[in-house]
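Ops channel
N.P.: pipeline sanity check, posting one input/output pair.
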């Protein structure tokens, strides 16, 4: 397999990663043949998958607009961010507050390398390579503390990221640590894959494809996702299917939204922590 000139020499281009598979399905160009092969197999098992991922990306945009507009947040920490191409956080929030500061965090070095290249012209945004399972280390990272004022509210984004964390890696601990570390007025926004109300065959086939690529997807129920957010104050309408979270004016949320294979929510640091 030929190595593109833009790929860092220490990146294994033959091992697919979730961030690059996601980039491919969104129509991006920061992916390799190995990522495209896995993506196409997943699409063959679940043809609606690119549409689902684009709907998830649309939720990200609506959540950022709400957080920047209604909640007045000007600082964002995007965990498991992938590659910030079309519909990225700094562009969306920056249109509301030009002074918005953003840190993108991903464990994939190629995603971080491309993020840094994209962000060269954006002095208020940067990217770091780190593991979202350790929020305390992320919040202590010099690039984070140089970009964000952690005495002021921060919106943490965990969009299409937590379903790559199995129960054995204690995803609930991520929320506990964030709640303990973030200042008052901070928020978290999440979306998460689910099998609730879904025909299992295609979902399981797509899960199997991801699992064979070392990017296993863990589907969680409404109750399991609600448990992750225990101790946080949910923003209305609470935990809902992705298309139903603050749809844009003019968008019709039809009955098919009730079976969308993913939940979304935004929550505020609880006053009783």
């Amino acid at each position: 397999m030929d190595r593109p000139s833009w790929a860092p020499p220490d990146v294994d281009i033959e091992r697919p990663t979730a961030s690059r598979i996601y980039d491919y399905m969104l129509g991006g160009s920061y992916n390799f043949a190995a990522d495209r092969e896995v993506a196409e197999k997943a699409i063959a098992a679940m043809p609606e998958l690119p549409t689902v991922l684009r709907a998830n990306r649309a939720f990200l945009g609506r959540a950022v607009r709400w957080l920047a507009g209604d909640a007045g947040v000007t600082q964002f920490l995007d965990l498991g961010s992938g590659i910030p191409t079309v519909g990225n956080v700094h562009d969306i929030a920056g249109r509301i507050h030009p002074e918005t500061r953003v840190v993108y965090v991903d464990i994939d070095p190629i995603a971080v390398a491309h993020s840094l290249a994209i962000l060269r012209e954006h002095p208020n945004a940067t990217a770091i390579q780190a593991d979202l399972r350790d929020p305390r280390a992320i919040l202590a990272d010099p690039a984070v503390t140089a970009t964000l004022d952690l005495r002021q509210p921060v919106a943490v984004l965990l969009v299409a990221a937590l379903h790559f964390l199995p129960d054995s890696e204690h995803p609930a601990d991520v929320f506990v640590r964030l709640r303990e570390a973030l200042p008052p007025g901070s928020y978290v926004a999440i979306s998460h894959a689910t099998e609730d109300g879904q025909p299992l065959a295609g979902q399981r086939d797509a899960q199997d494809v991801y699992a064979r690529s070392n990017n296993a997807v863990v589907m969680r129920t409404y109750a399991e996702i609600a448990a992750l957010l225990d101790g946080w104050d949910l923003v209305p309408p609470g935990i809902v299917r992705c298309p139903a979270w603050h749809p844009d004016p003019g968008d019709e949320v039809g009955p098919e939204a009730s079976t969308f294979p993913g939940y979304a929510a935004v929550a505020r640091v609880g006053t009783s922590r």
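N.P.: looks fine end to end. The chain has one domain: 49-198+220-269.
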